[in-house]
Design goal:
homodimer, alpha/beta, Molybdenum Cofactor Biosythetic Enzyme, Chain A, Alpha-Beta Plaits, Maf protein, 3 domains, 13 helices
Chain lengths: 412, 412
């Protein structure tokens, strides 16, 4: 398989505040073409380091892609350093200069003299049109090496890659096709999943299997390479099929959808409606349900009842029930679900009550204790969880287990 | 100033699914010691590339830190490659082996033979105790170069850096101290902020100024270097003071706090309480308010009224008002705020109604149109916004402008 290196250029990427995300997008695109990424480098606006990094990359990899450093200011050194490394003087291209000047004029602005720099292109290199900005991209063929310079802003870089670079790389991919598949799993931890599926995936080197724990759920990525898409898909089918079988209903998504998308899809298909009653999650469950476009078809209303008094007034949870069992209890979770379902007139009601911390925990009811209640026309039930982590993580996990309980109770 | 390179090792970091975040944390730590990061590299479990990357780094930088690749499996090649690059054979250290075996036994497990590898340390190198895992870190002094190998998992890497590495690097920092400060700005775009403050910060090369647009707000980072903390702070005071003056109340946070933290802090100080009524944000405003530990003191309840009927029943918004002006209108936003305030009995009520898209927009009321209403004891008012971006961004921006309107109306 052919391989590439990616170099991100810009001093802001060497601060604690910003990371290079372009390379993740580029990696997905390259992989889809059957090109693996073997090294990624971040350098600042620093001629010495950029020069050495470029030389190393061109020595080791047939495809080298840089992002950033093509702007109009002194800091933007990519063009200059590339000219030196490839021993090609920079030549001013009048047609590019005209286009840049025109882009400014069409917005009623005068081009600053600085921007002339952006019309400089190394000799015998090809400029790539930038539809969404002034900096053109550049492609240089150095013997059997391809050096591709792209602008840093994703909204300029991505369309430029898609339109101009992808067609040029496709022939390099040769005969290898890469296909990926993603499964998402709820209700199980990373090591639990691994124990179950390791006997399957360790028997295969193709596809490769990656297990990620994404804060709240286990994600399984499978990548197969083969001479054709169909053969790669067949390799995936073989392994993913076995994995799906041992994980059963714990797999909630087979094409990378989120849990809220799956719940929304199934609610729509069944014609169900849902209302939420939240305490410790403070709106997060409703927020996730309404993240999905079109959710107004099934999500009718939600109540965040932080104060006990609000649980009684807004949801009809009897004050005596709260007094008898405490606000964080199975009884109150079920009463919240029943109450919000009755008042909203929905098919399903879901209630969450718990202790997200950092304060408020006791020996009997520790931080992380969460009860989820669900109510339908013929069933009212609950589950108890002790969730790990800090406030943020507990709240996110609580919204996840609530969505998953709705899925398992009403939507399988 | 001294400088460092960071190398992240692991094939999973060369997939589209995962990025190296250790280097951001390490950069903050190194910067605090007065050490700049000049290059970051990600390589896979790939001996050839790792070897070359290590050689280049040691040639160019006095401090080289690697993360990852110290595990017990065949894939974990860091020790082996470092031994080759530094020409130091790997020596089995019996005391480390005992400790690893003991760590397994204390959890009732038997050590797998693989784990013996983790007790291999290059000759004359120093092993660093790993309190939270089995892989020890390694420090090698190569002439005037310091090569530091750390494990990949953040919960192992961070305490190891803090306990063992930081004290070793402190002398390298020499006489330079680095101090940073962060301002956050609401209600202004990136270029608006830049127009106002560029005349200030461009007059200084120290501190450096970085402007970031963080999806919903502008963040300003200032970094000053000086022989002492006090001098660095004085440099910051000079520039940041001028910037604060021109930006005025648009600066909502001076120490990096989030907008919801600032709103929560001011609500607490004033003894105010708040309730929310949300439509298009679907719970996100309440979620952000309750992200803050201790928010139950001021956040009493929230209602997500997606359906018009819920706006009337839950919030007392007159059906005629909705019929006359539409659900997305200034009148309804104010009525939602007034309604939720009255029913919850809080000091402040806030209402949001808008069109988050992708569907539901019209020529008259386009996607992105959002009204925020706020109600206090003596004032009811609203603001209209046309927010850019996709559904996610519009919802996030809507929650941001709502929090900011609460801040500006009641909390200055």
């Amino acid at each position: 398989m052919s391989h590439a290196e990616i170099i991100a250029i810009g001093s802001e990427l060497l601060t604690p505040f910003r990371s290079d995300t372009n390379s993740l997008w580029l990696t997905a695109e390259l992989n889809a073409l059957g090109i693996a990424v073997r090294r990624k480098t971040v350098v600042g606006d620093d001629e010495l380091f950029l020069e050495e990094t470029l030389r190393d990359a061109l020595r080791n990899s047939p495809v080298v892609i840089t992002t950033g450093g093509l702007g109009p200011t002194e800091d933007d050194i990519t063009r200059k350093v590339v000219a030196r490394v490839t021993q090609r003087p920079l030549v001013l291209q009048p047609d590019i200069l005209d286009r840049i000047r025109h882009q400014f004029e069409s917005r009623g602005l005068k081009m600053a003299p600085n921007n002339e720099r952006q019309a400089l292109v190394p000799r015998d290199a090809e400029a790539l049109h930038n539809e969404y900005g002034t900096a053109p991209g550049i492609v240089i063929a150095e013997g059997d090496r391809l050096l591709i310079l792209l602008p840093g802003p994703p909204r300029e870089m991505r369309p430029m890659f898609t339109t101009h670079v992808r067609p040029r790389l496709a022939p390099l991919a040769g005969s290898t096709r890469l296909r990926t598949r993603t499964l998402r799993v709820a209700g199980m931890g990373e090591s639990q999943v691994d124990d179950l599926i390791a006997p399957i995936y360790t028997r295969y080197t193709n596809p490769t299997t990656t297990i990620l724990f994404n804060n709240t759920e286990v994600e399984l990525h499978f990548t197969a390479s083969a001479p054709s898409d169909a053969e790669a898909e067949a390799l995936l089918d073989e392994v993913v099929g076995q994995v799906e079988q041992v994980l059963g209903v714990n797999v909630f998504s087979h094409c990378g959808e989120t849990l809220e998308q799956i719940v929304g899809l199934r609610l729509t298909l069944k014609g169900y409606t849902i209302a939420t009653a939240e305490s410790c999650t403070g709106g997060l469950l409703s927020k996730r349900l309404t993240d999905v476009p079109g959710s107004s078809k099934y999500f009718l209303e939600g109540v965040i009842a932080y104060a006990n008094e609000a649980k009684t007034r807004r949801l009809g949870v009897p004050a005596e029930l709260i007094a008898a069992h405490g606000a964080v209890s199975a009884e109150v979770a079920e009463a919240m679900a029943t109450g919000v379902k009755a008042r909203a007139g929905t098919t399903i009601g879901v209630g969450i009550t718990g202790i997200a911390g950092p304060d408020g925990g006791t020996d009997e009811k520790p931080v992380g204790l969460v009860y989820v209640g669900v109510a339908g026309d013929f069933i009212v039930t609950h589950r108890k969880f002790i969730l790990p982590g800090d406030r943020d993580r507990i709240r996110h996990l609580a919204s996840q287990v609530a969505l998953d309980l709705v899925r398992r109770t009403f939507l399988l």
